[in-house]
């Protein structure tokens, strides 16, 4: 929990002055993207078993507020306007701080990607105009977003759509960090339940929505070209390539080297073996 508190504190500090790049050009226009309202089901009715689960999860979120470390992280996760602070929430998981000065190619990819996918939520939100948890229970929010969110539909969650999109993008840039990146993204989405901004079903729907938008991005040649630049920049800045794990070339297998079928390697073994947890190419 100490680590969570440190992450939250770091994100809330004024470590940078960069805000959202409003001039970012989307890779695709909204009418080129799948329409979420035609894909996603309606949110659970207030008298449904699914909504009963939402209420249970709302109670879970309120319990999390008793942990000062977790609630501090949830408050930091509520950041919307300042993208440098937003991306800072993934710094430890991604292994690199993202900002326009130090990582211009990654920054450009992230800004244009979010400019593409963020608007996907708007039509569905406006159509269903679902009441938010803090409104239904006349509750206060630890993130103090009541004035900004009151009267705005909660389905799907904009923060969660964005957070899961960020995780998908960062995992594509650095697949070797995918587990850490997605774990951070999962907790980021859950932060919206903890502060009372969204029902669990809002968050779940947004993870699906983010995946839909992410798949659409793969069809943009401009996105693919920029992704390659971002991957190269990440490799340069961190010394890590974009492969899941780099292979090490050696002349002979050492002890504790195993073939991919689990059998121990011998002097005559050639090809890929696993040595001390790493892939090794044996000539």
Task: Provide a concise account of the structure shown.
With 283 residues, the chain is mainly α. The chain has 14 helices and four strands. It has a four-stranded mixed β-sheet with strand order 1-4-3-2, with no helix packed on it.
Distance between the termini: 46 Å
What would you call the shape?
Answer: globular
- Strand composition percent: 5-15%
User: How much helicity do the residues have?
Assistant: 40-55%
Radius of gyration: 22 Å
Care to count the β-strands?
4
SS element count, helices:
14
- Characterize the quaternary organization of these chains: single chain
What is the makeup of the main sheet? 4 strands, mixed
Strand order of the largest sheet: 1-4-3-2
Mean pLDDT: 86
Low-confidence stretches: 1-20, 244-255
Structural class assignment:
mainly alpha
Order of helices and strands: HHHHHHHHHHHHHHEEEE
Give an account of the 3D structure.
Helix content is 53%, strand content 6%. The chain contains 14 helices and four strands. The chain has helices at residues 2-12, 36-39, 49-64, 68-77, 83-88, 91-94, 104-117, 122-128, 133-136, 146-149, 158-173, 178-194, 200-217, 221-238; strands at 248-250, 257-259, 271-275, 278-282. Strands 1-4-3-2 form a four-stranded mixed β-sheet, with no helix packed on it. Strand 3 (271-275) and strand 4 (278-282) form a beta hairpin. The longest helix is centred in the C-terminal third of the chain and has 18 residues, at 200-217. The radius of gyration is 22 Å and the shape is globular.
């Amino acid at each position: 929990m100490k680590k969570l508190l440190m992450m939250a504190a770091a994100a809330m500090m004024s470590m940078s002055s960069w805000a959202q790049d409003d001039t970012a050009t989307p890779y695709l226009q909204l009418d080129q993207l799948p329409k979420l309202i035609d894909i996603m089901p309606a949110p659970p009715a207030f008298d449904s078993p699914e909504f009963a689960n939402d209420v249970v999860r709302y109670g879970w979120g309120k319990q999390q507020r008793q942990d000062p470390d977790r609630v501090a992280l949830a408050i930091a996760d509520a950041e919307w306007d300042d993208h440098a602070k937003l991306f800072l929430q993934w710094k430890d998981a991604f292994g690199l701080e993202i900002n326009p000065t130090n990582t211009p190619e990654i920054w450009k990819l992230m800004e244009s990607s979010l400019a593409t996918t963020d608007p996907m939520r708007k039509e569905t939100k406006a159509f269903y105009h679902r009441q938010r948890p803090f409104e239904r229970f006349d509750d206060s929010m630890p993130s103090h977003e009541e004035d900004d969110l009151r009267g705005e539909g909660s389905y799907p969650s904009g923060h969660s759509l964005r957070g899961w999109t960020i995780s998908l993008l960062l995992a594509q840039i650095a697949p070797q960090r995918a587990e850490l990146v997605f774990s951070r993204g999962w907790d980021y989405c859950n932060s919206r339940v903890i502060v009372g901004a969204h029902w669990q079903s809002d968050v779940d729907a947004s993870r699906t929505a983010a995946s839909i938008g992410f798949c659409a991005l793969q069809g943009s040649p401009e996105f693919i070209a920029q992704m390659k630049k971002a991957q190269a920049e990440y490799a340069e800045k961190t010394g890590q390539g974009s492969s899941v794990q780099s292979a090490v070339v050696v002349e002979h297998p050492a002890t504790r080297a195993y073939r991919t079928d689990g059998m121990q390697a011998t002097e005559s073994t050639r090809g890929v073996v696993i040595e001390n947890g790493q892939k090794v190419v044996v000539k």
